[in-house]
Amino acid sequence: MSTTSVSGVSSGIDWQSTIDSLMEIEGNKVTLLERRQAKEQEALEAWRQINTKLLSLETASADLTNLDDLLAYRSASSDEDIVGATAGTGAVEGNYSIEVNRLATASRATHGGVADLNNTAINSSGSTQQFVYTYGTGEDQETVTLNVANGTTLAELKQLINNDSDNPGVRATIINDGSGSDTAYHLILTSTETGTSSQIVIDEATTLEGFGEEGFSQITTGQNAQIRVDGYPPTGWIESDSNEVSDVLEGVTLELNDVSDGDIIQISITRDNATVKERIQGWVDAFNGVLSLIDDYDTYDLEDEEAGALFGDSGTRSLKNRLLKAATRPVEGLGEGFQFTSLSEVGISLSEDGILEIDSTKLDDVLSESFEDFGQLFTLTSSTSNDALSYFSHSDRTSGGEYQVEMTYDADGSISAATIDGVEAEIEGRFILGAEGTRAEGLRLYFDPPEEEGTLSVLITLGLGIAPLHESLSSRLTDDQEGAIHFQMDRLEESIANFDEQIEDMERRLEATRAAMEQQYIAMETTLATLQSQSDYLSQLS
């Protein structure tokens, strides 16, 4: 602002106050721009908050995409110290009796010992020697040869084994038996896996003196766990190479902790409907959180005559409609035999307030009578008419439904040509990808080739249930490059920047106007002073 004083000494008028009053009127234009800018800033913040809520919905949806993430089971053991259990998808309610005869153990080889850990060389031959061992059994057996340089210590051999990039699953450790003798420090080789297939054998090709098979005083053979389930088999045992047994009871992993010494351990598996309802309620809350926030911003308070930050914004109505449509329309791609295709069929529907509401009684009945079918409505499902080709992944641009795949492959399993629904597909090694611009865009299928060349015609069914559908929708809406929210915020940020420029330009013009007015009034005062002086002079002459 100008600092020139317009005193009004000659005119007797307070020109400074007059200028200030005129500039205040002109300044209202800046105030108007600032108010409009503030409204845009409020709208921008509102869209940011909506974006945050949508990201929460995306996370809540992603957390329920797989059946194991949605469906819950309770498991109980009569003796956790002997057998524990966890249950997941495919588990069948019931009670099971388990007898544990033996635990799975690792293979172990213990060296007879040397006197020193770090200072005494285990290879003093003057040349490089080999330490050779085999791991595994049968066709899976691997032979590992390590070059042990002259002067290598026991500690260095341990590191050589553990740091070997070809190590198939052997961990080397050293223990001190406390004897202080020439054999106090022992190298121990232990398989990282358990079971009879994890055998460690010191190979006869070893040339490192004292570390051939004869140098290892104890070699323990790995063994399989042995159990019976509900008395089966009546003679003999079910064997497992791990103490986590997941291939005996469908959907159940048994955790073997000790032998039962002939006792029978009872395992009970029940559906956990309460946890499933909590998970569904969490998703519904996340969905309603977006709708409620939109309503808060797109509203008008008649009593206070105050509009919400996004009142009348068509973008909010479009967003709300997209969310509601996704939540209320039938789910595509579930295929034949699925009991439910919409949320309303399982007790989740729109209330009079326009948000999702859970009918707890109806949902309880659904979970009690159709537990797995409910899970398939909410999660991602896929099926194939030929196991050689199966679903691998999809993107937010992929639609649910059936896909007819035709493909040709050669003798080494390389895919030479493929189409999805008659449209040429992209080929990446063992993967077939849906073409851009089609409903299969983003779809990725995996090919496990048969032994001979040929052609395949495969029907792939992809069911994108409620959770994956809303995960994809939320992801599209919040995409920071092409999402609808991005464009709304980008528009507002550009508008706010334009207001900054207009306000700065207006303030510069107001400053110039004040300076011009002050100069005019100063010139007027100067002229009046001159005229007053001349008048006084003429008065004196007369």
Quick overview of this protein structure:
The protein contains nine helices and 28 strands. With 542 residues, the protein is α+β, with helices and mostly antiparallel strands. Strand 22 and strand 23 form a beta hairpin.
Description:
By secondary structure, the chain is α+β, with helices and mostly antiparallel strands. Helices cover 35% and strands 27% of the residues. It is built from 9 helices and 28 strands. The protein has a 5-stranded antiparallel beta sheet, with no helix packed on it. Strand 7 and strand 8 form a beta hairpin. The mean pLDDT is 90.
Entry keywords:
five-stranded antiparallel β-sheet; 542 residues
